[in-house]
Amino acid sequence: MQSLRKLSIPYIIWMTVLIVFPTIIIIVLSLSTLNIFRLDPFDWTFQNFRIFTSDVFYIALRNSIKFALLATTISFFIGYPVAYLLANSTSKNKTLYVTLLIVPIWSNMLLRIIAWEKLFYPNSILNMFGISLDLIGKDSAILIGMVSMYLPFMIFPIYTVLEKMDKDLIEASRDLGANMVQSFFKVTLPLSLSGIVSGVIMTLLPAMTAFALPARLSGGRTLLLGNLIEDYFMKTSNFNLGSLISIVLMIVMLILYVVIIRFDKEGDTLI
Amino acid sequence: MSLNFPKFVQRLLAILTYTVIYLPIVIIAILSVNASARDYVFTGFSLRWYREIVLDARLLQAIQNTLTIALLSTTIATCLGTAFAIGIHGLKRNQRIRMMVLNNVPIVNPDIVTGISLLLVFSLLPISFGMPTMLLAHIFFSIPFVVLSVLPKLKALDPNLFEAALDLGATKFQAIFRVIVPSIKMGIIAGALIAFTMSIDDFVISYFVYGNGYQNVSIWIYSRLGRRTFSPAVYAYNTLVVLITMIILFIFNQFNRKNKKLKGDRIT
Q: Which residues from A are below 8 Å from B32, CB to CB?
């Protein structure tokens, strides 16, 4: 089938136009006074970098890191055991349980965020049951929302590798004298590492860059980097500052991506 | 296989998982049959919001746009993605890995970065914001998923299959459509399904490339949050989508189980 390799050429062009080219524009924008809509002559400048010393950037960065790490950790400690349970399940409804994890993705994410928002206000339909939550603006509201949205993305890659794993290896390690805890930490866990890496990244990045979720669940009080980018691109039209902040995210993504590639060259665990 | 976590802890976490991901969907369903338009009090059962879906012209238009974009982008992305995957499969190992690294960038990239990247490219191209930009964006983020689900099927094929077809007198075109495509069918269907799923509920990327009043459901919701024009009819729409998905998946599951039984496989 080597003769069909020409079919990949248009893809290289397509990806260059839509990934490489905009990345160059983002770098140019962040280092200059370029206005993308006027394309006048522009100056190169480091002026935009002053944003890094501002309070608003510092707060958004800190919040992004804090919520992303917390949401990912919680999702991991819930998600791993559940993926493990599903992968080893002998129930005849196993596929049903797994597909039930996909169904929520069909439900609009914004609406799901709004549903949590409604519950977190003191006046909510939960009052019927005598419950009144007051979580809007609290960290727990954002964390519950994030775990609810991103947990399936943690479970899936881990489930995929655990499912494919050769179960005889566990038997072998047991026969060789390992106890259950040892065989888990020495065999199962290392073999599922590629799934864990993908799951962590598929949770960490969306959590770090969320903007609608923190905005709704904090009543607009908690800023994440995503909120800054949204403001600069969609509200104040300051593409230069918006680009510079995106570069911060792109660097984080790049570092994490290099980690993924080390474990999983062709991205088999990404879907 | 031995269990390493205490069973009741696993059960508890599983219940927690399904609760935390389904609670918002249940709330949306409850609000969709609420007689009141106020969403903090349940005043009684009513199907009025289901009727409102067809009465609210703007919402109906947004739903139509969402489905149009999802169907078109899925079809185009599935065809292109399959062709690209066949091309990538023909590459030498090192080139293939490099290509896959590029392919997976949009999957790993945060949506917001993909969104602004496309916004910037589209601003520089002679293309009007609206339907064309949204369609292009959805095709763009769907293709990598199709490639990713088709490629493993290609790898599993007998490497001589294509040549055998050619030797037997098939043209390249026939060999692809009569031999290769039918044998990677499942990968193509899975890819199309993922593409459709990604498209139908996309918000972030669509948000950065929409324009000229061309809204999908997500944009419709976002632009009406906290306003009077936000109609609970959208809860009804969402509940219908979830119900239909569930029914399809349930039938598929039953069908699958029966199939496995017929083939005498182990039922899992």
A: none
pLDDT of residue B98: 87
Q: Quick check: A201 and B100 CB within 8 A?
A: no
State whether B24 and A112 contact (CB < 8 Å). yes
Position B259 confidence tier, pLDDT thresholds 50, 70, 90: low
Whether the per-residue pLDDT at B3 is higher than 70: the answer is no
- Percent of chain B at pLDDT > 70 equals 93
Residue A83 pLDDT > 90, yes or no? yes
Question: Nearest-CA residue of chain A relative to B120?
Answer: A22
Give me the helix-helix angle, B7-32 and A109-120, nearest 10°.
90
Q: Which residue has the higher pLDDT, A219 or B116?
A: B116
Under 8 Å between Cβ of A203 and A75 = yes
Confidence of residue B261 (pLDDT cuts 50, 70, 90): low
CA pair distance B192, B195, nearest whole angstrom:
5
B3's tokens = 């269990």
CA B53/CA B58 separation, integer angstroms: 9
Using CB atoms, pick whichever of B106, B109, B267 lies closest to residue A92: B267
- CA A170 centroid distance within chain: 31
Residues B199-211 pLDDT 10s:
998 999 999 999 8
pLDDT of residue B199: 93
Distance from CA of B204 to the nearest CA of A (A): 9
Contacts of A3 in chain B (CB under 8 A): 90, 172
Identify the closest residue of chain B to A108 by CA–CA distance: B201
At B25-52, the pLDDT tens digits run 999 999 999 888 777 777 788 888 899 8
Q: Which residues of A touch B14 (CB under 8 A)?
A: 81-82, 85-86
Collect all residues of chain A within an 8 Å Cβ-Cβ radius of residue B248.
Answer: none
Contacts of B143 in chain A (CB under 8 A): 11, 14
Q: What is the dihedral of CA A148, B140, A223, A216, to 10 degrees?
A: -50
Q: Which CATH number fits domain A53-270: 3.40.50.300, 1.10.3720.10, 3.90.1150.10, 3.90.850.10?
A: 1.10.3720.10
Average pLDDT, chain B: 87
Calpha distance B16→B171 (Å, rounded): 56
- Name which of B14, B28, B154 is nearest A115 (Cβ-Cβ): B28
Query: Contact B107/A94, CB-based, under 8 Å?
Result: no
User: CA separation (Å) from B122 to A104, B129, B137, B155, B210?
Assistant: 31, 8, 10, 35, 11
Structural domains in chain B, CATH included, are: 47-240 (1.10.3720.10)
Residue B264 has pLDDT above 70, yes or no: no
**Cβ-defined contact of B90 to A3 (cutoff 8 Å):** yes
- Helices then strands, counting H and E runs in chain A, come out as 13, 0
The residue ranges of every structural domain in chain A are 53-270
Q: Give the chain B residue whose CA is nearest to the CA of A247.
A: B113
Query: Could you say which of A92, A114, A183 has the minimum Cβ distance to residue B2?
Result: A183
What is the arithmetic mean of pLDDT over A4-28?
89
